[in-house]
Amino acid sequence: MFPYQVGGSTGHVSFKLAEAIPQLRCIVQDLPTSASQFEAARPAALADRVKFQAHDFFKEQPVRGADVYFLRRILHDWSDKYVQKIVRALLPAMGPRSRILVNDFVFPQRGQIPWMAERMLTTLDMQMMIGLNSRERSIEEWTQVFVAADPRFQLKSVVQLPGMSEILMEFVLAGTE
Question: What are the residues facing 53 on neighbouring strands?
């Protein structure tokens, strides 16, 4: 398996995944300014399986046919227009088995969580709007953003671990599996 962590910062998540899954090879992509921090943080034992590649996620994805393009905690920072641009930059590179895994915050339906937690999430949503012109999204809103980027996108699976505020969503292109 060869996934790519797009917008992967210093690679800490890819390091943990590669340590847990010995057959996993990763390329962490981020802006060139993250390269030295990545190299300093990468465990020596992972040097042959976890690499860094400078990449701007608004530009076309240079790595073709990856099993997984992993976007962790980056899309919620952007308005729908820019999320669609990031996702569209992946499209030309996606192969028939490729999928996009999004690990991000998901706004629950009203009344599904205690009112105090809902109030805090609403405050976070307002902060995202004020600070970044973005917002927290429900699963349905995440799906709408992907489908607006390309109507072939389908939400294949959703996983949320107990006690976690984030969800893992798997998007695939219809007709390519």
Answer: 29
| Sequence-ordered strand ranges (E) for the chain | 3-6, 26-30, 50-54, 68-72, 99-105, 153-159, 166-173
| Domains defined for the chain, CATH in brackets | 3-106+136-173 (3.40.50.150)
Q: Does position 144 have pLDDT exceeding 70, yes or no?
A: yes
* Choice among 42, 55, 72, 76 that is catalytic: 76
Question: What value does the CA radius of gyration of the chain take, rounded to a whole number of Å?
Answer: 17
Say whether 12 is catalytic. Answer: no
Residues 32-53: pLDDT tens digits? 999 999 999 999 999 999 999 9
Q: Which residues contact 109 (CB under 8 A, 6 or more apart)?
A: 138
Q: Is the dihedral of CA 174, 78, 105, 114 positive or negative?
A: negative
- Assess whether pLDDT exceeds 80 at residue 110: no
Q: How far apart are CA 82 and CA 110, in angstroms?
A: 26
Token output for 4:
């790519």
This prediction's pTM: 0.85
Using DSSP's 3-state secondary structure scheme, residue 174 falls into coil
Distance between start and end Cα atoms, the chain: 16
Rounded CA-CA distance 6/89 in Å is 11
